[in-house]
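#structure-requests
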Amino acid sequence: MDIRCHFYGEEFSPKVVEQLIGIKLENKIEVGDISKIGRNKGKPSDYGNGELCPPKDFKDTEDFGLHWLAVTLSKNIVFFRKCGAENIDLVIGVWYEKQCNLVFEPESIKLFGDLGIALQVSCYEDFDDGLFH
């Protein structure tokens, strides 16, 4: 399972977020950076982007870091918005074999709900195509 929160906006700066709250973001793009993928590939990006992922110690827990992400966002959502985050997407990717059952603890879901952040879940049937091994 992969859990991450995407932040993006026309004035969003992941660098400023990292400096303000000391949290490392992944897949950072500053406004004006040359895009390597997507609709702006090879052109300056017209938006900033960053992804907040649970640290490894939390990814290895029963909830894969969902509660850590909920608490971290609830404490810092104001800073993300002040740094230009117009859109905040909580995305969970699930890879499975044969059957997919998910349980999300109410406390974490409530924190996301209180912040107005929808939960997006994508499930993928696990298969061995040699790409991920």
